[in-house]
Amino acid sequence: MAGESYSHYGGRKSSDWCSKITVVTFVGISFVGIWMLISSSFSIPLQNSEISSTLKVIKNLPGQDFPVNAKREEDETFQGEKGFRRGRSLKEIEDEESEGDSSNLRNEEENQENSESSSSGDESQSGNESEEVDSREKDSTSSGGESETGGEDSNTDENGDLKLETEKAKKGETENEIYPAGDQSEILKETTTQNGPWSTQAAESEKENESQDSSSSKGYKWQLCKTDAGPDYIPCLDNVQAIRKLPSTSHYEHRERHCPTEPSTCLVPLPSGYKQPIGWPRSREQIWYSNVPHGKLAKVKGHQNWVKVTGEYLTFPGGGTQFKQGALHYIDFIQQTLPQISWGKQTRVILDVGCGVASFGGYLFERDVLAMSLAPKDEHEAQVQFALERGIPAISAVMGTKRLPFPGKVFDAVHCARCRVPWHIEGGKLLLELNRVLRPGGHFIWSATPVYRKDEENVGIWEAMSELTKSMCWELVEINEDKLNEVGVAIYRKPTSNDCYQSRKRNDPPMCEEADDSDAAWNITLQACLHKAPEDSSAHGSKWPAKWPLRSEKLPSWLRSSQVGVYGKAAPEDFAADYDHWKNVMSKSYLNDLGINWSSVRNVMDMKTIYGGFAAALKDLKVWVMNVVPIDSPDTLPIIYDRGLFGIYHDWCESFSTYPRSYDLLHADHLFSDIKKRCTIASVFAEVDRILRPEGKLIVRDNAETILEIENMARSVKWKVKMSYSKNGEGLLFVQKSFWRPNQEQIIKSAIA
Questions:
Q1: pLDDT tens-digit series, residues 243-299
Q2: Rounded Cα gap, residues 693 and 227, in angstroms
Q3: If we measure between CA atoms, which residue out of 511, 542, 527, 524 comes closest to residue 410?
Q4: Where is the composition biased (Low complexity) (predicted)?
């Protein structure tokens, strides 16, 4: 028992001692924290703007006109809720904390009495001090001191600290400083701190009212475009007035871009009976006739299995002029002719010139090949529109007097199947343009009647082409005949070095000037000259890219660590960071969190790309991405092609060379804030509306101000705002286009004959 009693007693004593030590330590730390808080809260210099607002707030508080000084002496006292006095020892605090409940109650009563007695004294002192402040303000004004709106505040010193001087202080005498006590000190702290990250309701409401007023004042009164082209209006290709003034159309100038002086801000009407497009891959075989109500091509080319009208559908048997029995057979025939083509591995990105309805490009997806199909907006009405409605990449363009909107040395192959282009005339100017965009070592696949027909006209063209291609140092690597389709194909290979160019007996066609940049492509006049093959390993096109799909992730061999990337890092780090960023965005946001049904998305455009990271992150989905590099952005388009992706140069102050309702999803990363430096956002938004399908999606990443502006525009055209989010000045907007069209029309004079 004795042992038990001793053990129990000793344990209790130890427990009491530990408890006391714990309390002492806790109270000590609390005291030090309070002391530091009080000291720091009065030692921070205030800026002039803070001073004026603080004084204003304090004066508006009844009975709280206390003078404020940012400096305190170490022996000043601070009365808090428990009446702690600075400078007390830890032992004094321990003794107070160790007393019982009655002692605590007694202390609270004493504190109340002390508070009441001190408050009466404080009131009299504060009243006197208020009078002194008022008198000083009068003195400052009457003595010709600096005004409140100009120069330094008369109540602040050179460091911006608040100073409330009395006449005694001016004479060198000091006066006891008055500080608020207890709950009044909390009011002071609140009024002298900045808002930090917190906005006020007044500021938020004022900003929203300004935004609504701004939106209302701008009006956003959208009108319907009234043009001869109707629902198929392409502003830069349907400028009838400009086309009429052309001195000549012999080089297809009338099929080239002629943009209106002022960009359009009207909305293009929908075709009557327009429906949500049929999804991929079914769309490759059939589309709604009401969406592209053009039957002329079916009458002209129906016998060649281009397109047919079948009830409420337009159907595509998969044929073409050179492959009536189907595109897949023709595609395999080409690889059998030249196995080095190696579709989807060695040959990944090709250009299909004069594509028709793009069945060749549509079936190349079966072989993991991307085809940039192009054809003019001509008498073969809507052939590119058919392609896009089917879910096949295509643009409206012509080989005329200007360079194609692609960089040099980027396409793995160029294909022409009865493309109606006179390659051999005028010094081979048009074929030399293909040479510019074709990668060294790339192939030109020519399937046309001069290859296999022996009549006088075709023989003459073949001989002219043979002479031209030889002078260009192209090697004819294979000729073969497709027995099933009764057509032939000739395949040429572009040289990888300059040896042949240097050994030619005649410099015809001539070599381009050294200053001629083969990558310059926007609104550049064609030249009948040859560009040299790159000799420097740091130049793009100097080496064939890795095989697909590895090339989508692999750094192009010509990018060096000594080069600075777009984001300011070494080019390889920039490239990797961009890809990691978009993979992260795609996996953590776009694929799941936005609620997009990606199975209904086929045609995608990245309106302002850098390295193609957005498109590369989507490569495993059944979509294709048109990468657009704006003409005023860093020219990174060659990198995108080296990754096995494709794209185009464009100026977003003009209309894009595509039909209305071409894309399911548009992605704009800091495009709008950049473009509004050169043209109006309203015109760019109208173009977005033109090329986006009803119920199509727009994702915008931009600064918060621009996000709000685009959101207001989207709401004004009855689009559904799915998400709008801003943080730290940056924002994300996700909206969906509706079927709504305005009733009032705007006559576009440039587009009416």
A1: 999 999 999 999 999 999 999 999 999 999 999 999 999 999 999 999 999 988 888
A2: 20
A3: 542
A4: 114-128
Verify cis geometry, omega within 30 degrees of 0, for the bond prior to 549: yes
pLDDT tens-digit map of 312-358: 999 998 777 788 888 999 999 999 999 999 999 999 999 999 888 89
DSSP 529-563: -BPPPP-STTSTTSSPPPPTTGGGTSPPTT--TTS
Question: How is residue 102 written in tokens?
Answer: 């009655």
Question: Furthest-apart CA pair in the chain: how many Å?
Answer: 131
Sign, CA torsion 309/311/313/319: negative
**Is the dihedral angle over the CA atoms 613, 408, 684, 663 positive or is it negative?**
negative
Asked if 399 contacts 421 with a C-beta cutoff of 8 angstroms, the reply is yes
Beta bridge partners of 747: 226
SS3 726: strand
CA distance 622 to 573: 29
d(Cα 349, Cα 370) in Å, to the nearest integer?
Answer: 5
Residues counted in the chain: 753
* DSSP SS3 for 228: coil
Q: Helix/strand/coil (H, E, C) string of 2-19?
A: HHHHHHHHHHHHHHHHHH
Q: Which region, left, alpha or beta, applies to residue 268 given φ > 0 means left and ψ of -120 to 50 means alpha?
A: beta
Q: Residue 200 is encoded by which pair of tokens?
A: 């006020």
How far apart CA 192 and CA 402 sit, in angstroms, is 66
pTM of the model: 0.72
Instruction: Classify residue 683 by burial, with Cβ atoms within 10 Å: 0-12, 13-18, 19+.
Output: buried
Spatial distance between the Cα atoms of 402 and 257, rounded to a whole number of angstroms? 10
Residue 264, token pair as written in the block? 């359009």
402 secondary structure, DSSP code: B
